[in-house]
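[job 0412] stage=fold_complex status=start
inputs:
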Amino acid sequence: MTVTEINWSEEVVPDSRFTVRFLPFDATVEVASGTTLLDAAVEAGLPVKASCGGRGTCGDCLLSINSGSYRARPSAGLSKNLVAQGYALACTTRVTDNLTVHLPQFQELSIRSVADSGFFNAHKDEVSGYYGPASFSETVADVIPSATDKNIFGIACDVGTTTVVVQLVDLRTGRVLSTASGYNHQLKCGDDIISRIHYAEKPGHLRELNTLIVATINRLIQKNLETIHGTFLDIYYASVSGNTTMTYLLLNMDPGNIRKDPYAVGLNRTRLAVSRNLGLKMNPEAMVLCAPAVGSYVGGDITAGLLCTPLLRDAEKVSLFIDVGTNGELVLGNRDWMVTCACSAGPAFEGSGTKCGMPAAAGAIERIGLDNGSVAYTVIGGGKPKGLCGSGLVDLLSGLFLQGYIDRGGKLSEEKAADRLVETERGGGFLIEKAERSYWEKDLVITENDIANLIRTKGAVFSACSLLLKNVGLAFENLDAVYIAGGFGQYLNIENAISIGLFPDLPRDRFHYLGNSSLLGAYLVLISDKNRDLVNETAGRMTYIELNTEPDYMNEYTGSLFLPHTDMDLFPSVKRIWNQ
Amino acid sequence: MGFEIPIEKNSGKIAEVTIGATSEQGGTRSNTITIGGSTALPFLFFEGEHPNRPALAMEVFDKVPAKYPEALLDYYRDVIDKPADMAKKCVEQYGAELISVRLDETHPEKGDRSADEAADVVRQVLDSVKVPLIITGHSHYEKINVVMKKVCEVTAGENCLINYVETDNYKTIAAACMAYNHSIVAQSPIDVNMAKQLNILLSDMNFPSEKIVIDPLTGALGYGLEYTYSIMERIRNDGLAGDSMLAFPMIINPGYESSRVKEVRVTEEEYPDWGDMELRSAYWETATAMSLLSAGSELIVMYHPKAMETVKKHVDELYSAESGN
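[job 0412] stage=fold_complex status=done
writing structure:
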């Protein structure tokens, strides 16, 4: 690697063309010499943002350069120390060679955050899904080899809008051999489901989205195989759970109608496909099974996820299952009846959409407490913090609110927060950690915009809960159990989540945090045909409610855009603390 | 068996807000105006108490509005650029019970007049009329915060109605109102929840609840009036049902809203079917004001003298029917 830090203003003659390869997306573009990496990233369609508009001051477009020489201008947004480690700002770096570049904001996710199954491990006998020795599925009986010295592997795959997780499983024993996760390569085509559906409308784009998701899964399969030194020919079965749109795109089906209401979704039974037709890196004869969808925005991730809860077994109790993701999905009911709905929550608690947020990976603050001006936190993997994951954001918002740093509308109090008030490119904010003690050597700040984003997300989830209950004539206190799934990270603090109004104010022992239930559900379907049948039956019994057409939704939503809620009487325990 | 009117009993009561201060109260006004206090929906005298009549204000300007309607200029041509004289005319000739001073010229894009100059304008109006004042600002947060702070200071003791604060900008102005003992208008964009949220935020600052007036934001007739109407109705119903954070009187601006619509501004030559412009503009403002009075508003800011006269007459009739005269 050669850095050429000569006069930036000196023209680089655009006389030759070089390729720039961006990791982890594996996107490659060819650009003229002298092009900035920011322009190259935009041309590659990557979601690289620069809130300063490319002036080299905000530091948002940080990347590390793995190979090749380049010309970089020193800038205020980047410390000398980071430059020495090969970091550069995309907006102030010009291409003068073939480069391989890594985008650190899209680092590999840690396994711990995506495959935590504490609840499942502790309640294996109570959950709805059958859990026992793996049995070979009938569907793959014809293709698996009879020789006993051969490996027989399967994969469980959770295809999320933002992240994808693939687990490699020994189908003889049911043992998980390896787990890998990464960002969905489709991210460059839009952050949320609706923008992906839009994107797919143009000619050729459906195939592109399909290729991107297949490539994402294949890369993760490859990573798993590398860990155990296996071969893809030994993989005979895959169980996939994803939201409706992601499943459509994986199967190369046109998602255009999903947005149109009313729409009877086309994947309401498990769908079997042969891997060679999908292009997945498995044995060509291997079978791929996609969990069934219920409605446009309630997909296989939810039907499979329910297997990890006791909800499908309970006859008396009424439970609520909430999956907080880029799209929030809810299921209410028990063995005899179920209603379900989805809301557009935004990816704030998954770590996107806020300046200080990040996924629950190494370097993320997962727990944080405020105590009269001092801030104490724990970082995943130790060391200096890079940002906050969902559980950290919940803690922080709750702390800021209950200690009066922000008002109930989420605005910072100039008097109370005076010592920690800072101005950033994106407006005023609360200083969490100073530059010298943070990983990126930049102030770690939660801005008022970030806070507003978090409030919108929690408001969408809560108002959907509230409306779903109203639809069946129940109140919050009728809920016997609340099961929470989502990528918050390991230590979601229920008390704090209630105090910001994300979840209803119920006795805390009714809440159970499941972690990634979609992945676990896919795994359960993989190891037993009983679960496959159960998931099909479940999908057939769920009633889908479309919130967009509910006139009351907007009213419930604006009522929820407050801490904890405009109607404080809905949160008696928070009211007690607040009044003190 | 005779017919009995079914009567709905409400548990809540709309807060009473007094604007202005007489010399005994530390001000210089000849009288104060009290609004609110109702325990039933507007004009339903058989269901509850309506201790105070709706109040009718008129508006003067620090700068002639760029699009001031022709139909109104005929009434005000001589005084439109002299706020103190215009205020006098509104009170003495047209019966304004309060005067609103609109400080648009302090907006950085509309003249950037300084806070001191704005305070001078307010001072002049205070000297020329003896009715309570409403001070009306704009949405440039940084500037209006400076202006209102100054205006609050120089009018200390007068108990003006400072118009307005919103969720994104309330702290500075609310603090100034508390320090100099003024009342406040809490404005929210046609939404029950957001109206309530702002009132909660003000209460969390310990802002006295007998000094808050809600502006639910209105449009003129034909410009979403029915939407505003139902939001105001819901605010009032919730307030009467006992939600203390919505139990405040409401201010509306039919004059300002009507003055901006095409139906008030185009001449008869352009649209012969629409009839006489002068009459039409009065009708438009009257219809807007009367509708919003029925929705629950207690304080209306009018522009058109004819509309003012008509609305006043209607309110008189409705209230005199009650007292049996």
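[job 0412] summary: DSSP finds 17 helices and 26 strands in chain A.
[job 0412] exit 0
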